[in-house]
Predict the structure.
Amino acid sequence: MTASRDGDREPDFLYFAFGSNLDAARLHIHCPSARFVSIARLADHRLGFTIESRNTWHGGVGDILASPGAEVWGALWIIGGEHSRPLDEQEGVFRDPPAYQRYRVAVETPAGDLVTCRAYQVVAPNLEGIAPSPAYRDTILRGARAIGLPEAYLAHLEAIEDNGYVGGGPH
């Protein structure tokens, strides 16, 4: 990972994706420089759907919530610094009010390496949860299968109940 010395862009960064950005095609919409590094596990967190995407996904979208003993599996990506702001924009960091905020996490790779990286967490989560649309859940599953997340975690994702909305997805 090399940082630009021109001062005009942020350095390259590591990003832990656990929702729709597990899917390379989805992530490359805003971050074409993203390169897959490894699958990774975030300990003591669980996957939740705590904010609604009304315009893109038409249902709940992913969040990571502190939960002792639980785990969230995802993708570790390296992304060029020029795509830091587009990723923040995709995640709604600059909205008023903001949807997500940057969240530093330490994830573990299957090789046992601990990696500190960027993730995103919902600013004001609805802890009752909001069912995701089939399109959102299927995007997560497509990405999770493509990168080889563990079978038990795939089964967990497959069991997520959706809201039945027909349509949805990035434009």
About this structure: The domain at 13-158 is CATH 3.10.490.10 (Hypothetical upf0131 protein ytfp).
